[in-house]
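task queued by scheduler; priority normal; single chain, no ligands, no partner chains; default sampling; output format set to C-alpha cells
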Amino acid sequence: MRRLVVVQLAIFAAIAAIVVPFGVRYVAGPQGFRTPLLLNATMTDAFGLTAGTSVTVRGVQVGTVDAVWLDRDGTAMVRLALDPGTRIPHDSIMTIGMGTAAGIQSVDILPQTDTGPYLASGDTIAAPADRQPVQMDRIMGDTAQLVKGIDAQSVREVGTELSNAFDGLGPGLAALIDNGADISRRIHRQAGQLQLLIDGTADLVTTMAAQHDPFVRGMAASARLATQLDGSGPVFLYLTDHAPATLNSLQRVLDTYRGTFGATLANLATVMPIIGDRTDSLQTGLSTIPKGLQDLTSIVKHDATGQTRADFSLIATQGPVCNYDVDRRAIGDVSPTQPDLVMYCPPAPDLGMRGAVNAPRPNDLGLQHSQTPGYPIGPPVVDDPVKIPTLAQLVYKWRSILKGGPQ
C-alpha cells in the first residue's frame, strides 16, 4: 500500500513538473520565467491608462502596462513591461487608442525604421502629444454637439427644395447616366489615341516651358499685332465694303480657268519629286550662282580705244583634259565609294586632268597596274589668246566695211 502511494506521488510530481511551467507560461506569458523589457514614457495626458492595458507593436501584443503614476512635476509617467527579446527601434513612438468601440484602451508602439539601435530595459520611449489619436469620449462629445447644432427645420427645408429641384427630372438624369456610360465606353476604346494625345500635350507644354523667353516675346508680338489691327479698323471696314465686288471678279477668273487647275496640279505633282530629290543641288546653286556672276564680270576688259570686250582667253587656251567613262550614281546617293586604281591618264603634251574622278593616282603609284587609260577631250592649246569681240564691235566693224573704211 505504501509503495502505491509513493508511485502515485512520483507520478504527480512528474506531471506537476511538466504542467506547472506551461500553466505559468499561459497565465504570466513570456515574462513568467525571464525579466521583462521595461520602458518608460512621459505624457502630458495618460488618457486613463491602467496597469494591465495591453501593449502592441504594429498591432501584435508584446506586453502590458506595468504602472501609471504622477511624478513630482505632475507629469504622467507610464511604464511598459514587454516580453523579453522584444526589439524596439530607438526612434519608435508610443500612441494610445481605443481597441474597440466600447472604449477599451490599448497602447501601440509604432517603429519608424526596421533596424537598430534598439531600446534597452529602463530607456524612455517617445510619446508625442500631437501623435496621440482623439479619444472616443471626445469624438462622441463633439458628435453630440454637432447633432445639437443642426436645425431640424433647415433639414426639412433642404429636403423639400431637393425634392422640388429633382421633381420630373428622372428621365433626364437617366439619359445623363446612360450618356455617361456611353462616353466612358468610347473613351475606353480610344484610350490608345488619348494616351498619345496626352503625351504629345505634355511634350508641347514642356517645350513651351523650356522656350519661356521666345514664347513671351511671341505673345508680346501678338499683342502688338492685335493693337495694330485694332488701329486699322477703318481700313478693314473699307475692305469689307468693297470686298464682295473683288471676290466676284476673282470667282469669275477662277471659273474661267477651272479646267486648267487640274493639269497644273498634276504637273506640280510630277515636278515636286524631281525638285525634292535635288534640294541640295538647288541650295548649292542659289549660293554659288551669285558668286559665279560676280566672277563672270572679271572677263570684261576695256581696251585703249575705250571699247569694252569679253576676254575668253582663259577658256579658249586651257587645252584638252583627260576623261574617263564612269557610271554616275543616282541623285541622293551619298554612300562612300572605293577609288578605281586601274584608271590612268596617258602622258601627252598640254594634257591636263580635271575633276575628282580624274585625280592623280594615290600612294605614288604612277603608271603601276594601269589598265584603263583615259582619252583627251577639248580644244588644243593655242599660242595667242583668241579675242572674241563684243556685238557692238561687230556692228561698228560692219558699218565701217559698208562705208568703205579700213577693214
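post-processing summary
- DSSP finds eleven helices and 13 strands in the chain.
- Residues 395 and 401 are 10 Å apart (CA to CA).
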